[in-house]
Amino acid sequence: MKIVFMGTPDFATGVLRAILQSSHRVVGVITAPDKPSGRGRKLNSSSVKTFAISQGLPVLQPKNLKDPEFLGELKALGADIQVVVAFRMLPKQVWQMPKKGTFNLHASLLPDYRGAAPINWAIINGETKSGVTTFFIDDKIDTGAVIDQTIMDIAPDENLGELHDRMMTAGAALVNKTLDAIENESYTLKEQDTDNPKMAPKLNPENCKIDWNQNGAKIFNLIRGLNPYPAAWTSIQSGDSEIKAKIYRVSFQTLSHQKAVGTIEQTKKELFVYCLDGKIKIETIKIAGKKIMDAQSLLNGYNFEANSFCS
After folding, report:
1. How far is Cα 216 from Cα 239, in angstroms, rounded to an integer?
2. How far out from the chain centre does Cα 231 lie?
3. Which SS3 state, helix, strand or coil, does residue 71 take?
4. How confident is the model over 159-212, as pLDDT tens digits?
5. Confidence at 47, pLDDT banded by 50, 70, 90
6. CB neighbour class for 16 (10 Å; exposed up to 12, middle 13-18, buried from 19)
7. Are 228 and 248 a contacting pair, CB within 8 Å?
8. Of 39, 64, 155, 234, which has fewest CB within 10 angstroms of its CB?
9. What is the pLDDT, as a whole number, of residue 169?
10. pLDDT tens across 215-259, in order?
11. What pLDDT was estimated at residue 112?
12. Which pairs with CB-CB distance under 8 Å and at least 24 residues apart come from 251-260?
């Protein structure tokens, strides 16, 4: 089949690479416009664009998916089907264009964890299973009929980066399986249950901040669900200074204590923060203005004032 692929980040690049190794033919790639970043505001291309160009694939970067010029270019590609991975919501005239439709790969077991950050929220909520889903796109977000799913276990200490990479591999295999099934018309659609699914909203500074009044298990899951990006964070009050810190790896010890939550405890080599039902051992941290380092390396050159605490 002739495929138009739509996607932007690394997760999508891994899937596109797998499709190119299949029997199907990618006739075009749609990705986000280049964006300025850094001090020099240099234009940077998406991961998908960089890879697509390296493979000699035609690339379109529309700002407006309803633009008549873009719609004409898209139609001219003559795709049998469109595959969407980590892109943006499509207008009806785009997803209805190919004769075999448009399907999306989503990094959760739909209907649970619809939304922008499904891998993060599965870990943050302490799920032990997740997976990847292919479904036909309709006029709402992540609600279309399910084509196929792959179920995956989540290890108790697995972080976002590790699960992301495993899901990318599993998702690439599922996309190729789905393409074959659609070509052969050997699939059965399953409508999604819409009763109270778990959601995966966008991440922001507020829902990435650590609440030390929670129990240790919840804090542990938040930190691993945001590692390596965007990272859980906290404010540290040390003497007269307030410092922002991102925390990447921790362990947790349950214990009864009389300390105020957020209290910092340090030795020459170890750094702890007390929470509701024990204390969190900080293993990897980034203090504002410094690089990411293990706690021992930080404490070799940095000393928190007495009565320091996190908030």
Report:
1. 26
2. 12
3. helix
4. 999 999 999 999 999 999 999 999 999 999 999 988 899 999 999 999 999 999
5. very high
6. buried
7. yes
8. 39
9. 97
10. 999 999 999 999 999 999 999 999 999 999 999 999 999 999 999
11. 97
12. 251/220, 251/280, 251/281, 251/283, 252/216, 252/217, 252/219, 252/220, 252/278, 252/279, 252/280, 252/281, 253/216, 253/278, 253/279, 253/281, 254/216, 254/278, 255/279, 260/309
Domains for the chain: give ranges and CATH numbers: 2-199 (3.40.50.170), 216-310 (3.10.25.10)
Q: Is-contact 303 241, C-beta < 8 A?
A: no
The residues near 44 (Cβ < 8 Å, ≥ 6 apart) are 34, 35, 36, 37, 38
Q: At what angle do helices 160-184 and 10-20 cross, to 10 degrees?
A: 40
Does residue 40 register a pLDDT over 80?
no
SS3 (DSSP) at 235: strand
Token code pair at residue 127? 């799920």
User: What percent of the chain is helix, strand and coil (3-state, nearest 5)?
Assistant: 25, 30, 45
How confident is the model at residue 37, as a pLDDT?
74
Q: Please give the Cα distance from 311 to 298 (Å, whole number).
A: 20
Contacts of 137 (CB under 8 A, 6+ apart): 84, 90, 95, 101, 102, 103, 104, 144
Q: Helix (H, G, I), strand (E, B), or coil: what is residue 300?
A: helix
- Mean pLDDT computed over 64-91: 97
pTM: 0.95
d(C-alpha 270, C-alpha 281), whole Å: 7
Structure tokens at 64: 């407006």
- For residue 127, the one-letter residue type is E
